[in-house]
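Can't paste images in this forum, so I'm doing it all in text. The chain is below; anyone willing to post the predicted C-alpha cells underneath?
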Amino acid sequence: MSTFQPFAGERIAVVGLGRAGLPAARRLAGWGAEVACWDDRPEARAAAEAAGLALADPASGRFRWDALLLSPGIPHLLPRPHPAAVAARQAGAPVLCDVDYLFRAVRAAGSRARFIGITGTNGKSTTTALIHHLLSKAGMTAEAGGNLGPAALSLTILRDAGVYSIEMSSYMLERIAAIHFNHGVMLNLSPDHLDRHGDMAGYAAVKAGIFARQEPADLAVLGMDDAWSRGLRGTGLGRCLPISGLTPQPGGIWAEGSLLRDDSGPILDLTEAPALPGSHNAQNAAAAAACALDLGLTRAQVAAGLRSYPGLPHRQERVAEIAGIRFINDSKATNADSAARALASYPRLVWIAGGIAKEGGIEGLAPYFPRIARAFLIGRDAPAFAATLAAHGVPHAVVGTLEAAVPAAAAAALEGEAPVVLLSPASASFDQFSGFDARGDRFRELVRGLAVGRAA
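Text version of the structure:
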C-alpha cells in the first residue's frame, strides 16, 4: 500500500469503468479511498473484480458514498440522468470528474505544480498536445492528458516546477468543484452537445467553467474569433489575454496572414510549421504560445517548438502524397464548424464527407462550396448532404462507404480536378465505425493501399 493516502477515509463510488473510470478507481483505492465500482456492462464489472476492486451499484438502495465519480460520457442531468447520478443528487453527494481528484492529490502532496486547462468546441486536442510539446521541448517537466490521451488519474504527481496540460470537455467541466486552472484556455464556441446542456447558453456556461476559481495571478486565454467566446470578455475574468487566428488583438497574440505575432513583433511565420495549417491552427498556436510565454519560455523556444510540432492523428493529418495528390485525414471533424476549418485550408479539393450529421447539416459550409471540385458522400446522412450540395451546384456522388469513396476521390483528383483529397466528414462516425479514430485509421489504410497498388 502507498504511504501517500490523500483520500483516506473518503468513500467514493465510481460509475463507468472505461478508459478513465477503471484507472481512476484503482488510483483512488491506492490513495486510501474506500472505492465501490459499477458499470452497466458485465464485462467491465468483471475487469474491476479482476483488479481487486469492490463492486456495488450506487443506484440500489441508499446512496452511502461521499461522492460519485461518473464517467464523462454518462449524463447526470440531461438528456436523461443515470440512476446512480439520481441517487447521488438525492443524497446531496457531489457528482465529480477525475481531474478534480488529481488536483486535490497534487496539492495534498505539497506540490505547487501548475495546471493548464484547455477547452473549446474545436481545436482543444491539438492545443493541449501543442502546449505539452512546447514545454517538453524547452526542458520543462510536463504531463498531458484528460479528454486527450491518458486519463487524469493516470498522470504522475509532479513537483513544484511541473505543468499539467489537461484537455477539458464540456462533460468534464460540468463536474468540477475544486480545481482551478492557473492557465485557462477557451478557444472557441459553436453549437455542440446541446442535448447534454440544453441550449447554446447552457453549453457556453458550462465551458466557461474553465475559468472557475481563477485567482488574480492566473491567466485567462480567450479566443476572439466567435461571438460566444468574445462575449466572455469582461465577465470577471482575471488576466485576460485575447487570441485570434484572423484579426489583430492588441495586448494578445494573433496571426496576420501566416505570421504569428504579439505587440512585441513576429513570433513565427506559420508556413514553417507544416502540422499547423489554416487560421484555426493559427489560433491554436496563439493559445499555446500565450501559455508558454507566460510560463517563462523565450520567443525562440516557442518558435522552435511550433516548427517541430508533429501534429495529431485525424486532425488534418497528411497521410500520403500520390502522384502529386495530397491525402488529408481530418476524421476528427465531427461537426460542420470543424470541417469548415479544414475546407478553408485548401483552395481546391476533392471532399469525402458524411456519417451522422449534427443539427443543421452542412448548409453552414456553403461559403466553402466553391472550393470543392467534387464530393463523395458516405454514411447515414449522405442523401441529406447530397440534397444540400445539389442545391448549390456542387458536383457530388453518394457512394456509401469509405471503401468506395477513397478510390473514387483519388481518381477524380488524379484526373486533374484538385491537388487534395480531404476526409473531413462534418459528421459523427457511429453509423459505420466505433469512433472518428477508427474512421481515420480506415482512411489511412485505404490510401496506403492506393499507394501500394500504384507502385506495383
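The longest strand covers residues 372-378. The domain at 99-308 is CATH 3.40.1190.10 (UDP-N-acetylmuramoyl-L-alanine:D-glutamate ligase).
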